[in-house]
Each structure stands twice: as structure tokens, then as C-alpha cells.
Specification:
There is one protein chain. This protein is an alpha/beta fold. The chain has one domain: Bacterial extracellular solute-binding protein, family 7 (D-Maltodextrin-Binding Protein, domain 2). Helices cover about 45% and strands about 20% of the residues. It is globular and about 55 Å long. β3, α1 (about 35-45) and β4 form a beta-alpha-beta unit.
Amino acid sequence: MSISRSPPSRIYFGAKKPLKSIEDFKGMKLRVNATPAERARMGALGATAVPMGLPEMITSLQNGVIDGTMSGMSIYTNFNLQNVGKTLLETHDTLLISFGGLSKAWLDKLPPDLEQDHRGGSAQACSHGLARPRLTRSRRCAKVWTEQRGGEIVDAASGRAGRAARSACGRSASKSPRTIRR
């Protein structure tokens, strides 16, 4: 059962050593969210995917376990990652999609008052616009990144190298069988 959803958000790559082109990925260890598509993309770019949650990210960056991360703009600003590196690379090769859900089986087992709180709360959140478009939030965070934090955003989507990387990632990610659990 869906309780929240947001429009897609752009993905940025940030690292201690500035990533300014597709070639800069070679040999890097970058935090990803552990999906087969993200691992395939890192491999196509010449980087090593390191599946890791956000709580471990800061310490791993500080200790050299990873060189950088792939995240939405709000992660860079909210975690103050300008202290790690000031340059973010936008590749336009994928989007981050957020979805919040509850198990219907779990919800049906709740006492009626709690079930109504959960059902009513999610409907109210959506109707009051709490699930605002992420792109707007992403743009606000990008403005904070560049104007208040002294960061820069490099757009690597144009040119032959960007198209080649997106093409290779797509071919590689689509080779593995899709698994959908219901």
C-alpha cells in the first residue's frame, strides 16, 4: 500500500577528488544503493560499486573505505558533504525515485484506531502536498550547494563520452533477469 511517493530526482556523483568527466570514474570506489543496475553502471564507468547505507557513508568517506557517493542533491546538502568535496557531477543517466509503502497484511492486523491513523495520515499527507515534487527541492538544494556552500555542479551529459557511458550502462543492466517479488 502506497503512503508516499515523489517525482524523480536527479542523481549526482561526489567524491574527495573532483569528478569532472566520465573518465574520472576509473578506479574510484563509490557508494551505491546495491541494486544490480547501479552495480552495472559503476562497472561500465570503470568504478567499483560499494553497496552501503547512508549511516555508514560519512565515516567511510573519512576513513577512505569509499572515494565518493552517488546520491540526490538533498543528501549532499543535508549531510554537509561540501566538507568532503565541492564538485558534483551530474550525468543524466538515471533518476532517483522515492516511494514509501506499508504492508497491507501488517496494516490489516492493527487495531481499528491505529489502522485509521495510518490510512488517514497518508491520505492527508498527499492531499496537503507534503509529498512535494523532489525536483523543486533538488533545485533549492542545488542553489544552496553552489551559492552558500561554495560548491560547483559539472554537467557531463553532453558529448560523446556521456552518451557512450549511458549506452553501456543500459546494455549491461538489461542483461540480468528481472526479479519481481509479490
